[in-house]
């Protein structure tokens, strides 16, 4: 293909010039920064989506415009691969080069070089499915994306305002539609609600109804979507009330609410008062994370985070596999270094299940979970899912139940697979999974919480001049640079019984994260703030020094 074939690309690119003073990087969650600065990037992601589709023989690629739990003025964009998974890592570099091309001609040059390196057949008609969240900058970015798609004559489907995991699901449905064995479902909102709703009702049928579930939707896209899911399910088994469901007023998205606020601050959303005995959960702004919580009879707040969801799911699956009598069908758990130490001990010592650590970012967990028969993976922040690999499917197909109880367990494993969004962590599907398990066990949130007691933990953020100087190893738990800083962290950790702390640069924000755990709340906070202080002092802290713990 000659450069002149891309005159339309150069012309449309001219409508979306790159801001000269910004360097973009495709990170853990795609591109993410201040919404208004992303127009050129999103236009170019449209071009990349087209090339990615052609490189995958015309399969549909997804593009999601969202910045998840980040503040409202931020926005972001990421690509979704054909099976609904995150973009293959080897293409992330192309995204970064494309986003940073200085001129329209440079855009065309990067495009041509990707076509050449990947041997892309540009005669294939590309297909792209796209959607956005409720952010004020999203319509502008959507228009830029549509220009990118038009420039390469893409056959496009606009899904409008949906959750991130819904888009991942649609992409997988579209690309598996022609395969009887792999068909994932109907690629529509109604199809999504029907699939997950039906699996849920199949699993809970005949059990007592649960009490109402209050859902904090972070004033984001989860609010309208979970209302539609409830309409579709239309059953006392799914009795919900949406809180923080205002997607119209400016400034409300993720503000004092949502899964990230609840997890980081270890408290309920600012606008909510918890009634002891009632059940609550929070989604994040694009509804791919979920955490549960409740107040005990003294009014104290208790969080059931991604680790608790993961252990609940792993326990239930392990017990079902055992009840099904299927030999050598293993359940394993994937965590990150942010997993609470108590959860890791519980998985190893009580559940006796294999557990592995992956780097932060769901794509890393996903790849580890794929290696297990049934791989349960969750980040502590509530982002995760369960995967059944080909080995597990084969074992389920070959199962020869010897009793009605075994047959029921096999049937429930199949139904659970239908209930779970395997393409990516999904707050709505995960919520239905948790609800199913609690209904089947007849458990309250407090009973679920009894499995183990969290170690006190604290997550802090330190703003530094240059976070790229931070390098890590050992699943991001040990710093190799800046030189000497890890020794300082180790010396601080050694002062606190059962202390653990690590430092890593964020992949989604311009900051360094400090995590700490220790036997008591006050030790934990002292450890966290002393490590954060050391990072600030020794590695170019900017702005305010992390407040000393008093
Ligand atoms: P960074 O900013 O790299 O820490 C955060 C979360 C990740 C993941 C990504 C994507 C923590 C500590 N980090 O990454 O787990 O969810 O955002 O959204 O929660
Ligand atoms: Zn999210």
TrEMBL record:
Pathway: Nucleotide-sugar biosynthesis; UDP-N-acetyl-alpha-D-glucosamine biosynthesis; N-acetyl-alpha-D-glucosamine 1-phosphate from alpha-D-glucosamine 6-phosphate (route I): step 2/2
Entries under Pfam families matching the protein: AMG1_II, AMG1_III, PGM_PMM_I, PGM_PMM_IV
EC number: 5.4.2.3
Active-site residue numbers: 68 (phosphoserine intermediate)
EC top class, as a word: isomerase
Signal sequence residues: none
Reactions catalysed, as given in the entry: N-acetyl-alpha-D-glucosamine 1-phosphate = N-acetyl-D-glucosamine 6-phosphate
Cofactor binding annotation: Binds 1 Mg(2+) ion per subunit.
Binding positions for substrate per the UniProt entry: 379-381, 504-508, 513
Protein name: Phosphoacetylglucosamine mutase
Organism: Coemansia spiralis
